[in-house]
Write a structure and sequence with these properties.
89 residues, single chain, mainly alpha
Amino acid sequence: MTLDGTRSLRSWLAPLRPVLAMSGLFAAAAIIGERNATTSWPVWLLGVVLTTAAAFVLAYMLGLPAAQRRAAAQRVRAALGVGQGSAHA
């Protein structure tokens, strides 16, 4: 909030970021899906894997603010046990 009690423009637009990222990803998927001209299942599967990885990275980078990206990364590291000190002393 600003000093006069109103919300700043940034705070009003913050919820739109994930919506815009999701809309962009859906639009890209629709465009790519219409132009899919694979000739075999292995090529199709490779395209699915690559597209899924790219969509995940784009959604993470474009859809989440920096603070939420850091928090998500910390939760993943904690779940995987990465970066934690050894329990042996």
